[in-house]
Design a protein that fits this description.
CATH topology: Trna Endonuclease, Chain: A, domain 1
Radius of gyration: 19 Å
Number of helices: 2
Number of domains: 1
Structural class: alpha+beta
Shape: globular
CATH architecture: 3-Layer(aba) Sandwich
Low-confidence stretches: 1-12, 142-147
Helix content: 25-40%
Length: about 150
């Protein structure tokens, strides 16, 4: 005979707790912080987040003035000054991002507005505040602006 199952319920509803992997939670939190940084500190406007296209998934699609910005967010736990998760932004990912630009141009039906690719690295630490590195126009310059 099988053992009875126990469910937790609140207000008459059954709830099953899903355990999300730690790296997924870290990524989501990194995207949230990157978005807030870009909106409130730099004045970017959010158009879409986690935009799924045929060619790529865009973490954040934002606008900086008349420029559309495809933002790739890389989140990690602090591993020291030398480590940058953006260095793991592969050539294949860059190719997919460039294809996404063409797809977005077709979607919006215009080539009037320029596109740019920014990278935001979000570092989480146990004993210190979060650190954010923003690299505007990442494909053309790989100089980190530390925040």
């Amino acid at each position: 005979m099988s053992q009875p199952r126990h469910f937790h319920h609140r207000a008459g509803r059954l709830s099953v707790k899903k355990k999300t992997a730690a790296h997924i939670r870290l990524g989501r939190e990194g995207e949230r912080l990157a978005r807030r940084f870009l909106e409130f500190t730099l004045g970017y406007e959010l158009i879409e987040h986690n935009l799924k296209l045929r060619s790529a998934e865009i973490d954040l699609l934002m606008r900086d003035g008349k420029t559309f910005v495809l933002v790739e967010v890389k989140s990690t736990r602090w591993r020291g000054e030398e480590y940058h998760p953006g260095l793991h932004y592969t050539t294949e990912q860059q190719i997919r991002q460039r294809r996404a630009v063409h797809e977005l141009e077709r979607k919006f039906g215009t080539r009037e507005f320029p596109f740019r690719h920014d990278l935001v690295e979000v570092f989480f630490g146990r004993y210190f505040p979060i650190r954010i590195h923003h690299v505007p126009d990442y494909f053309n310059r790989k100089v980190f602006q530390s925040i």
